[in-house]
Design a protein that fits this description.
Layout (H helix, E strand, L loop, with lengths): L10 E3 L9 H9 L3 E5 L5 H14 L3 E7 L9 H12 L20 H11 L3 E5 L5 H9 L3 E6 L2 H10 L3 E5 L5 E2 L14 H11 L4 E4 L5 H9 L4 E4 L13 H9 L5 E4 L7 E4 L2 H5 L10 H5 L1 H9 L22 H16 L1
Parallel strand pairs: 1-9, 2-3, 3-4, 4-5, 5-6, 6-8, 8-9
Antiparallel strand pairs: 7-11, 10-11
The structure holds flavin mononucleotide.
Length: 346
């Protein structure tokens, strides 16, 4: 079974569903001594199989497959549906796109997505938005796969402790992408990463992996010093050569450092953090469908924006410290982070 002490560098390149993760990125990070990840939530089993196969041909290092835990969802009233459609339709984006209310199934069958994972047995399997079934956790463990689950507060961490999972990913409010809260309707404590690590290491005996705003070796040393076992970094890898991040997303990360990030539900129906753009601004206070129906509904708009290289209407997920991003090959970034850790330590 995988142990974090086996890593050459205590870094997990974060799972990032929707394009940034590639076999080239994951294998470069794994070959440099970290963990390479895939956010497979929106992929078909065939694609998951292909990605894991390709990655295994490029590295013998540690790989992580990641999935969202979906909750049953139903369509809201007709009135809400119409308001949600109208909000998207009225956006002043160039070009034609169709918007429609998604039909069932609203989210993928996790058991089906896991078939290629059971075949390829990556070292790690992680989950976001909640705890998967006991069968899944037990099956992973019986195959020697280490299970990690995101927590944003103590109650979630305590539930993970009891689930049989092997480690906790502590996600601070600084993190880019979707907030991993289990219950989106409950009040979010919005705890900063450092405070969360300090609280969770007191309450849980599981290894705590720090996620949110970590961009340098100095940041990594800081979280290790307060009790984290490793760092999970997403935004830091988005401008790597090997990342499948869209062109406009990379351009905004590198050239729009004066913009701030904010949380929005408007892209997917669940709160996620990204660089402020026209879409976020124009969708403020507009009606949105529940997750992931809103995500499916905005798909055609986001696709058109990607074709037009228009960053104003794409989800530009990024953590609060994205202005520290570096554009370089992943191996170089891993080495730079390692050097910074050693320097800061000496
Ligand atoms: C573009 C992007 C996509 C993400 N997608 C996922 C995902 O599919 N699954 C997941 O568990 N976390 C996802 N996250 C969150 C990361 O796991 C992690 O919490 C976050 O990247 C840490 O903050 P940082 O981006 O400041 O490093 C995503 C983050 C980003 C930036």
């Amino acid at each position: 079974m995988f142990k974090f002490s086996q890593l050459g560098i205590p870094i997990i390149q974060a799972p990032m569903a929707g394009g940034p993760n590639t076999p080239q990125l994951a294998s470069a990070v794994a070959n440099a001594g970290g963990v390479g990840s895939f956010g497979f939530t929106y992929d078909k089993p065939e694609k998951i199989d292909e990605n894991l196969r390709e990655t295994k041909a490029l590295t013998n290092g540690y790989i992580n497959a990641n999935f969202f835990v979906f909750k049953p969802e139903s369509l809201p009233d007709k009135e809400i549906q119409l308001a949600a459609i109208e909000a998207i339709r009225s956006l002043p984006i160039k070009g034609e796109f169709s918007v429609k209310i998604p039909s069932e199934p609203y989210y993928p069958d996790i058991e089906e997505l896991l078939i290629p994972v059971w075949d390829h047995r990556p070292a790690i399997l992680t989950f976001h938005f909640g705890i998967p079934s006991q069968n899944i956790v037990q099956k992973a463990r019986s195959l020697g796969i280490s299970v990690g689950i995101t927590a944003t507060n103590i109650n979630e961490a305590l539930a993970i402790d009891k689930s049989g999972a092997n480690f906790i990913i502590a996600q601070g409010i600084e993190a880019g992408g979707h907030r991993g809260v289990f219950e989106p309707e409950e009040i979010d404590e919005e705890t900063s990463l450092d405070n969360l690590i300090i609280k969770l290491t007191k309450e849980s005996s599981l290894p705590i992996i720090a996620a949110g705003g970590i961009m340098s070796g100095i940041d990594i040393n800081r979280v290790l010093k307060i009790g984290a076992t490793a760092a999970q970094m997403g935004t830091a890898f988005l401008c790597c050569e090997e990342a499948g991040t869209t062109k406009a997303h990379k351009e905004f990360l590198l050239n729009k450092k004066d913009r701030e990030t904010s949380y929005t539900k408007a892209f997917s129906g669940r709160r996620a953090q990204g660089i402020n753009n026209q879409f976020i601004k124009l969708m403020e206070n507009k009606t949105v469908l529940p997750f992931p129906l809103q995500n499916t509904m905005t798909g055609t708009l986001r696709k058109l924006a990607a074709i037009n290289n228009d960053g104003e209407y794409q989800s530009l997920w990024a953590g609060k410290s994205f202005d520290k991003i570096r554009a370089m090959p992943a191996e170089e970034l891993m080495l730079a982070l390692y050097e910074e850790m050693k320097l800061a330590d000496s």
